[in-house]
Every structure is written in structure tokens, then in C-alpha cells.
Amino acid sequence: MKKIIVVALLLIISVASFSQQSKSSAALTKQDYLQKSKKQKKAAWIMLGGGATLLLTGTIIPKGEPTVYNSTTNVFNLFSVDGPPETIYKNDRIKRIIGFTGVLSMLCSIHYFIASDKNNKRAMSLSFKNETAPQLQKSSFVYHPVPSLSLKISL
To answer: Model confidence over 32-85: pLDDT tens digits?
Structure first.
């Protein structure tokens, strides 16, 4: 009984470890690359426009009420113990956060523009051709056209 269980387990393990993938991932076509490029470019323009809007909003927000902020309680100014009081406005923090978010969004849009361009180049390098291939017909080679997908790689 032990031998049967061991052999069954070994067969199960060997079948699972040496089997091939049942679903192959389909290669992307020219239309897929073009659609992906178009979506990435749209996302990049949205991020760029949204970032510019946030940056503009951050500069347009009014300062708010002034508050006196002593340098002794300033966390960022650790070396100055007794200094003149600084005037800090109520909306300074929110203005900085909105402006920083806008700049960050505009910088991240660069990545999407680059990725869109790469996918567009990949789409343009894919094409369908009819290439001739030798085939054996009645003990001689005959060249027949075979539809094929070609990929141009520029070096």
C-alpha cells in the first residue's frame, strides 16, 4: 500500500512539474500596441493638465490670516534658538501641498509620454507580409507564399 501511494505521489509531482502551459499568452498585435499607445498618451496629457491646474490653484489660493511663528518653536529651524518672529500665513501649508502635488503629477506624466512613444514605435515596426517559403511537392522544392508577421528592429 505504501509503494502505491509513493508511486502515485511521484507521478502527480512529475506530471505537475514537467507539464507545459495550457494557455499561452497571445502576442500583442499592431492594433493592441496602437491602442495601448493612445491610452498612455491620453493619460499623460490628463496628468500634465491636471498637474498644471493644481500648480496654478496652489499659487492662486489666498494667503489667509497671518500668524506669528517664533523660530524657537520652528521644527525645521533647529539651529536658531532666539531669532526674530516669522510671519506664517494660515493657508501656506495647503498651498505647498497642492503645488507639490501638481509638480509631481507633471513629472510623472513624462513617463507616460515616453512609454506611449515606445509602444507607438513597436506598433509601427510590426507588419504582415507574404514571404515565400520552400515546400516539398512531388519530390521537389516549390516556393509558396506564406503569410507571416515581421518585426523590424532598428539598431
So the answer is: 888 999 999 999 999 999 999 999 999 999 988 887 665 555 555 545 555 556
Instruction: Say if residues 144 and 132 touch (Cβ distance below 8 Å).
Output: yes
**Is 82 in contact with 10 (CB distance < 8 Å)?**
no
Cell 523590424, residue located? 152
Pick from 23, 17, 34: which is nearest to 125 by CA?
Answer: 34
For 59, the grid coordinates are 499659487
Residue with cell 495550457: 22
Q: How far is the C-alpha of 52 from the C-alpha of 45, rounded, in Å? A: 10
Give whole-number Cα distances, 88 to 10, 54, 56, 67, 68, in Å.
74, 22, 21, 5, 6
Rounded to whole angstroms, the Cα distance separating 112 from 118 reads 10
pTM for this predicted structure:
0.58
Identify the residue whose cell numbers are 512531388. Answer: 138
